[in-house]
Amino acid sequence: MGVRVNDRNRFSQRVRLLTAVVVFAALAGPASAQVASHAPTALANPASPALTVTGKPVARVNGVVMTDRDLLREMYTIFPYARQHNGFPKGMESEIRKGALQMIIFEELVYQQAQRQKTSVPNEQVSRALLDFKKKFSSQAEYQSYLQAEASGSEQVVKDRIRRSLLIDAYLKAEVKDKSAVSPAEAHEYYDKYPARFSYKESFLFQSISIMPPANANSDAMKEARRRAEDALRQAKATKSYQAFGLLAEKISEDDFRVNMGDHKAVERDQLPDVVIKAALAMKPGQVSDLIQLDNTYTVFRLNGHLPAGIRKFEEVEGQLRKDLQKEKEDRLRTALDAKLRKNARVEEL
């Protein structure tokens, strides 16, 4: 099974020199606390006993062994909030583990290929990266504690890891990123070929204030809701700006949009009730509707804009389009590279 390009999609994007400290910083909190309890099981996930770290091999790539320690570091890179969540979500843990395993295998394949092709990084670059890495620690003592816990007390081990990470980045830059660039002409060709992808439907921009009586409300409760709705309408009609209507919505509205000043942003016409569409078509931007009843909910809205259907200009979408097309290219090239490197490699998942 090859590397899953969508697991993280960050081969060259993440800072690999930090993989050695991911669990140290994200799982255990302050470095000193982690070192005090450091043991073969120090990286264990308390919510997932199966993830206890023992140094057990999980894969071999051309004879190079990767352990459960490497695997768990990568899992925390994929899901860095595991500590706050007291472990990995049970419904996601299996997929996170699978993605992490494929990632560490892929990176080892890339590293070995980079070595075969005699890819190199300047010593000065390694030294700068080491200095940047040290800045992640609050003190020299904390850094020394890290060295003891994760690098057998040797700064050379850390430098070797940094050099490995930089070699991986350099190789992927040459073989993936640099080959994935999308020119303006390529983007325009795509734009012309798929115009429907840049079209947009007629939509309305508006804010709302809603009064929502309890479910199964009796007649008295409905009368009270109507009274509050009419009071809300009176106050809404008195507002003169987006800000004023929004502050009123935050204060008295009972729908979910109240936390965002009642703003629904742009809503496509076919997503709105006919009664709302009819009212909106008769209004100008800045006007406030009359009271509208939708089932048992009373609503008043402020129209902020009416956007007819159309197609976005190329200049409006060029930047994002080039990014999207480049990402697609990168995914294809990464997948192809993974398959190529695995073809003649001895990869064992243990």
Q: What is the makeup of the main sheet? A: 4 strands, antiparallel
Mean pLDDT equals 83
Q: Which runs of at least 5 residues are low in confidence (pLDDT < 50)?
A: 1-50
Number of strands: 9
Count the helices. How many?
12
Note the topology.
Layout: H1 22-26, H2 31-36, E1 57-61, E2 64-67, H3 68-78, H4 90-116, H5 123-134, H6 140-150, H7 155-177, H8 184-193, E3 199-200, E4 203-211, H9 219-238, H10 242-252, E5 263-268, H11 274-281, E6 292-294, E7 297-307, E8 310-311, H12 314-343, E9 347-349
Helix pairs in contact: 3-4, 4-7, 5-7, 8-12
Can you characterise this structure?
- With 350 residues, the chain is α+β, with helices and mostly antiparallel strands.
- The chain has two domains: 16-183 and 325-349, Orthogonal Bundle (Triger factor/SurA peptide-binding fold), CATH 1.10.4030.10; 202-308, Chitinase A, domain 3 (Roll), CATH 3.10.50.40.
- The chain is 50% helix and 13% strand.
- It contains twelve helices and nine strands.
- A four-stranded antiparallel beta sheet has the order 5-4-7-6, sandwiched between helices. Strands 2-1-9 form a three-stranded antiparallel beta sheet.
- A hairpin with a 2-residue loop joins strand 6 and strand 7 (297-307).
- Helix 8 packs across helix 12 (314-343).
- The protein starts with 21 loop residues before the first helix and ends with a strand.
- The relative contact order is 0.13.
- Residues 1-50 have low confidence and may be disordered.
